[in-house]
Amino acid sequence: MQYQSQAVAKPYFIAAIGLFVGQILFGLIMGLQYVMGDFLFPAIPFNVARMVHTNLLIVWLLFGFMGAAYYIIPEESEHELFSPKLALLMFWIFLVAGAATIVGYLMVPYAALAKYTFNDLWPTMGREFLEQPLPTKLGIVVVALAMLFNITMTALKGRKTSISIVLLMGLWGLAVFFLFSFYNPSNLVLDKYFWWWTVHLWVEGVWELILGALLAFVLIKVTGVDREIIEKWLYLIIAMTLITGIVGMGHHYFWIGTPEYWQWFGSVFSALEPIPFFMMTVFAFNMVNRRRREHPNKAATLWALGTGVMSFLGAGVWGFLHTLAPVNFYTHGTQITAAHGHMAFYGAYVMVVLTIISYAMPMMRGRAANSEKSQVLEMWSFWMMTVSIVFITLFLTAAGILQVWLQRVSTTPLGFMAAQDQITLFYWMREFTGLIFLTGLVLYIISFFVGGESKEAA
Amino acid sequence: MSQAFTKSMARNIFFGGSTFFFLLLVALTFDTMQVLPKRDHRENITPAVERGKMVWEKNNCIGCHTLLGEGAYYAPELGNVYARRGGGDFIKAWIKSRPAEGTPGNRRQMPQFNLTDQELDDMVAFLKWTGEINTAKWPPNIEG
Fold first, then answer.
1. Does the beta carbon of B60 lie under 8 angstroms from any beta carbon of chain A?
2. How far is B76 from chain A (nearest CA, A)?
3. What pTM did the predictor assign?
4. What digits encode the pLDDT tens for the residues A359-389?
5. Is B66 helix (H, G, I), strand (E, B) or coil?
6. Which end of chain A has fewer CB atoms surrounding its CB within 10 Å, N or C?
7. Which of B9, B70, B85, B103 is the best mutation test for A, with the most CBs of A within 10 A?
8. Which of A139, A160, A181 is the endpoint of a domain?
9. B79-98, pLDDT tens digit by residue?
10. Which range marks the domain in which residue A18 is found?
């Protein structure tokens, strides 16, 4: 760690991992409710568990992104963080607001929560992923703006690198496009249309800038490859991301009341969306193969390579699988979507946050890398979680194909619930694999507490 | 990559490309906004439909169901439920009759939301209006 203020990233990373555990536990609850419908009912109905599962994911990834920004920007700018105190204050505000929101979901019926939090004054709740009460949404805006002010001031005072510029653009974009979550017209079609301006332009747009910047930063550090080459790749990858991904938003505009020409725009552009992810895979392997130093942190390198491969498979391949309009006509809103969602989020965003944590945490604890023993355990957790998510995705894909066949393609279509009853075997296998994922996550956490000899930070 | 292709060329492709395609998105959005009134039959959005959307949102229905294919995949699609169940009576009776402690057996549970008669009527108005949006013939069949 080159600058004292980078250490403010540490609580962000710790909170991220803690909330990650919560996300997985609620995922397991939901997975069980798929096959044992009365599990925990009526204490935790499925809709509540799902809201907690997805919201925890979003919040812990945001913790990860913010921690990454506080770690990377000072080092790239060669300047101490503008205000470490502000960063720490924002950490506590975000943690308390996030925890209060989750407790609210679990303790109060959602309609009552909406009433207590002034949803009638400005209705924004009850839309997928944007379920947060108004005060929480405003809190997210405040925390994001304070972070942007903090890191932008730092970057302005110091060296401006391509990595910090791309990271700043990604984070500014994140804040700007979140503002669409405050727009909730009574016309459902308009509501859905602009809901995607937050959701799609986050995960298939600006978040990928953040992803690219984090990956590029870690690759420079662990491979020692010339910055010019890595930053050239970074620009090319994110260029392809936005060239394909912005109009690729059309793949959400096939069946929600929008004009039919979106079927062409959406199919063509989103068919190209795997390209930047493929480039990312090639990029990660290329840089590691051309490495000019042997960095002792092997685990961080593994996570970086894993991000390249798994984001390509999850976001690229599994996205392409159901993105062409004639295919999507049958697969829209089935377990195929769920399969894609799981591997894409894990492969792209979970893994890149774990990459930067894997690289930065040892640095913040005063060493270049963890001990051999600790790293071996961390790499075990990498394989357990990654292989688990691959199988979860495969099982959900199988479930989805059967669902589509039974309910939508067959000449004697079954009703939704009748079709679900036919595919419970795959839900059981998914749940079992989820337990292995949890085991991997537990090993991951244990790896932080494994001692042994480690190299001093340079 | 060859040395002839420099970082500043890559940067220019990024800024130029993303600006161009963002403007294309804005242009397509502008056109969509012109065409939409013919497809979303917004003239039929009555106060009841508006209130029904609020009831839908306040009870987090999207946490289990899909609506026009978006949402959770735990419970049936509701964009065409009005047509599938032949009107609003079934919908109202179904929502009203969910036992608070759950139905016996391990089937998937729908909570009892304690909706008023007014809320139930509004919900039906909202689902009926939703079912009449021009969705390019989606879903493939009545089962959703």
1. yes
2. 6
3. 0.97
4. 999 999 999 999 999 999 999 999 999 999 9
5. strand
6. C
7. B70
8. A160
9. 999 999 999 999 999 999 99
10. 1-160
